[in-house]
Structures are given as structure tokens and as C-alpha cells.
Request: fold
Amino acid sequence: MTSTSHDESEMRIDSARAKQLSTNISTIIDGIQGAKKPEQSSIRLIAVSKLKPANDILALHQAPHNHLHFGENYQQELLSKSLLLPREIRWHFIGALQTNKCKPLAEQIPNLWCVESVDTSKKADQLEKGRAALCEKEAQYSDIPLRVFVQVNTSCEEAKSGVDPEDAAALCRHIREQCPHLKLQGVMTIGAIARSKETNEGIENEDFVTLREVRDKVAKELGINEEELELSMGMSEDFESAIRCGSNEVRVGSTIFGERPPKKDAQIKENVEGGGS
Reply:
């Protein structure tokens, strides 16, 4: 992936591209509102921007949407974009975590708002060390914990990351009791897309049901209210059914940004010719 040293103030945005992105995210926001029950609190939309240029992110971060939450899968790409874009952006790391990269991830990106894919205590411990090191260097973050979700493998697919449902409570307890610079935000699943496609109207996806049950069990074992732990589930293909199952956060990428290029062809920042805005 091609990087660049230009800063955000030099970044141009193609007006036609910005208009298309605005239309796309408005459609998703409308879908979220349509799926949400009146009693549900607001749903957090993570715009998954992996392999898309920082220009696209800036276009959505600016008016009229002023979107804050963006998700990335690759650590170096996230770091590069975070250096280009405003600190107000709230970054979510949603990719597979490597234990040896957890500490630098949490230490190098002050506005890393959440890590969504914690599935071992070792990874949590390394994120804790990284956030603690950041707080030592930048005092303004000392009272702001790094939020984390515990990823649960609800579909029991060997190829998927995530802790087994029966082991989720122990990991959640470890984070709450042993990681003072982390905040347990909730539990997350990717689930099997095939199950969403097979789910008919009025029938809940079993992955979403399993995650909800895991959340309820974890809350009971930790002696906290269920509402204190969020559910992060639902992507482009199934975010509406996830919301109907109680999701507090959905991760949508291709429906907003369009088809992604091969990783080798992706650019951190696009050079937009005159005629942009």
C-alpha cells in the first residue's frame, strides 16, 4: 500500500466522489433508523474504510455528515491514515490481532477509540501495556481508557478468530480486573454470512442470538447490568437484521465505499486533480 507524507490540510476531495459517498452513507443511516426499535438507543455506525484512501474518510468526516467512527483492518494502514487525518476521528481496529503488534497499536494511535477483536488475555495485556505507555507520554489521555470488544466465534468456524462462547466470561473478567487502561465495551461477532442469507423475515440469525446469550451470561457472571455490555454485530449484508436482534454497533464498508481494490493497488491518499473541492 502506497503511503505519503502529505497532511490533511493538503488533501483534496473530488466533489463527485464526495456526493456519492454522502448518498451511500445516507442510505445506510436510513436503513439503521428503519430497523431500530423505538426503545433502542442510538446505533453506532462504523464506516469500514480499509483499502480506501484517506480522501474518502475526510469527505465523510466533513460536513454535512461529520462522521466520527471509522474502521480499519490493517495496523500500518491505520497508523498512516491516523497521521494524515484529524484527531477528532474515532478509529476502530477491527482486523485480526497479532499479540506482538498489540502494544504498538495501542501506543502509537492516540485517537484509537476501540479495538474490536480481542480474543486472548495475552492480547488484552499487550493492549494494556500500550495504552499505559501512551498515557505516560500524553497526559490528556490518562483518564480515557481504550475500549475493547471481546470477539466471540459464534459460528464455531475454525477459520474464524474469536474466543469460544463458553470462554468469553473469563476473558471479559480478565479485562475488567487486570487491565485498568482498557474498558470492556462489549462482545463482538462476525458470524457466518451464509446464515444471514438463509434467515427469513421474522427469524433471527443464530449467530446474533448466540452473541446476545453470551452477553447476558457474561453480565450475570460479572454482576453487572446487561446494558453495560454492547453487542457489536452486523455488516453490509445483514446490519438491519442485527439491529433487530439488539445490536448496538454495525460495521459497514463496501456499501458505503464501493468495491475495494487489491491490497497491492490501494493508496493511503489519492492525488485529486483540479476540480475537486
About this structure: The chain is about 40% helix and 15% strand.
